[in-house]
Amino acid sequence: MRIKRRLLGALVYGLTTLALWNWFDALDGMDTGDHAWFLKHHPFPRLAVYGTIGFAIATLISFVAPRVAIWTAAAACLLSWPYWILEAPVVPWGRMSSLPQAVINAPSLPAILVFAFATVYTLFGLKPRSQLSAN
Length: 135
Hints:
The protein has one domain (2-134). 81% of the residues lie in helices and 0% in strands. It contains seven helices and no strands. It has helices at 2-30, 33-41, 43-61, 66-87, 99-105, 109-125, 129-134. Helix 1 (2-30) packs antiparallel against helix 6 and helix 2 crosses helix 3 (43-61). The termini are close together.
């Protein structure tokens, strides 16, 4: 059971790292006027990139110390949420008829969904140990 939990943590945090890093790499390549200024002069994107690095560290730590990985991921979530709260309203939520169309209309959607899932996974992982062993 412990090995499954460690692998699941590594998988969740690894996929989150890849999704977020892919988004920031694509965003850096867009270099549109207002977005480029926002990326260079606002602290939220930098904090979100630091949060992405935190998820990468949590991926590696989850094999050795899963509780430490959960706390590292919690810190990564806290660093990343301010940026994603600003990014979520940009997604055209009403114009999504299918998943491929949604990704075309909102390239940040996969990153937002994976990040939200990782946040929920981390919050459930923060339960006290007595509650974890009871389940």
